[in-house]
Amino acid sequence: MTDVTTEVKVTAASDIEVDHEALDRSIHEFAGPNGDYYVKAFHKIHDATSAVPNTFNLWAAVLGPLWSASRAIWGMFWTFLILEIIAWVQIGRGAWGNPGADMVERAERQQARADELLARAADATEKADIDRFTKLAANIQKAADASFGKAAAAQSEALSIMITGLLMLLVFKLAQGFYADRVYEKQYSKWRTDPDSTESGQSRRNMVLGAVLVAAIGPLIVYKFTVNASLAMLDAFPEKEVSALILGEGGGTLFSNLASWMEAQIDAAALAGGDVFDGIVAGVRSVLDALTIALIGSPWPVVMLVICVTAWRAAGPRVAIFTASSLAYIALLGYWDVAMETVALVGAAVLLCVVFGIPLGIWFGKSRRACRAAEPVLDLMQTLPAFVYLIPIIAFFGTGNPPGILATIIFGMPPVIRLTALGMRGVPDSIKEAAVAFGASKWQLLKDVEIPLALPSIMTGVNQTILMCLSMVVIISLIGGGGLGKEILEALQYAAKGPGLLGGFAILFLAMVMDRIVQGAFRREDERI
């Protein structure tokens, strides 16, 4: 029995030794140069029982960001590059800078003003003028003396500023030395799980790149913040000089030439495609007119009743009560017609977004190539400031409600496209394979399997599109759009705080009503499922 136990212990010890050898080889492979040091350091980190650093990397402390760059630890590189630059700025301010330069300039301006007032007092003939100029000169002289005193005090602190910078640099160096091995050990752990996407070893290319970044960033920042009068080229980009170099003298600026060219191209495109743009406007206007007749042309009690019943059936009695209260607020304050016009604008935009957005989302969800091609366009539509949309919209489609709807569509369509594509990609392959195995055609697979399973994501996209379209009602009023946005714009123009807030609350209640109805309808659909 004893021999068996001894044999088991020996076997276990040999297995542990083999594991340690494999780990050491792995660390050597990861670290490359100076691998023995990192083997010991990583073992110390593994065996440590507290979070206190128990290793110190001398080369990381001495080389600083250059060591981080050579080991491809770019987060640590940028962090300590910024911190060390701050320390060097403090050292430069104390060593060769002039901390009180601003106060000296201010004091000199005040002194010149005081001397000017004294000269005017000397030239004055009436006693009242002499007393007034003398008093003003005395007051400004006191301010100048105070500024000179502050400048002298700031200049006397130069040594302490330099010492502070040296202490900061020392602290940052020590921090890099103590934490470098821990950060590198975490990178080693990532490398073991995913060696293809994690850099290992010591790279000369990264070292050179880090040195170039340090040399390009550090000296310029230190120079800019420590020298009293830096080069004008560092303060402002020499746009005129570069334009003259490219276009020649008298050729204008790049901005003026490029702006003129773009304006000419837009005018030519608007003239060439006038019939197409007019047709698009006519189509949008037909949708808007239909909704406007239904909401404004119908008697207001009918419209209010239909909306409240819809809220009740879709989201329950609480949402119906809230909807009725919101509509009562809108009607009592005289916003009924403009609010219904806003609903028509948003409804037309949302309808067009859904009609075009959901099919595009289905296509992008099924085709990775189409999705990758459309991704930059969707990013542009969603991130470009909304005011920028208005420029080409006015150029191609004119002003008024239909062009405003087109601008709203550009801003509101990406969510429904993205979330529809996301829902389509989220349908499990096993379910689709089972449907195909039972003989489902492509149309049946889409209609009966994929769309129902992707419906939660699609409805979330529709909800987001509604809210984003509603957020555009104020902006489209800038190009002649009506509704509550026009009321808010007029309140802004005349700084009418009360009307502006009341109109803003009306928009808020409309948004909340639409959101609650859509979410409630979707929630009830989930409960049925």
TrEMBL record:
CDD domains: TM_PBP2. It is found in: Cell membrane. Keywords: Cell membrane, Membrane, Transmembrane, Transmembrane helix, Transport. One of its GO terms (molecular function) is amine transmembrane transporter activity. Residues 339-518 form the ABC transmembrane type-1 domain. Pfam families: BPD_transp_1. The keyword Zinc does not apply. One of its GO terms (biological process) is choline transport. The chain crosses the membrane at residues 72-91, 158-180, 207-225, 290-312, 319-336, 342-365, 377-398, 465-485, 491-514. PROSITE patterns: ABC_TM1. PANTHER family: GLYCINE BETAINE/PROLINE BETAINE TRANSPORT SYSTEM PERMEASE PROTEIN PROW, GLYCINE BETAINE_PROLINE BETAINE TRANSPORT SYSTEM PERMEASE PROTEIN PROW. This is Glycine betaine/proline transport system permease protein.
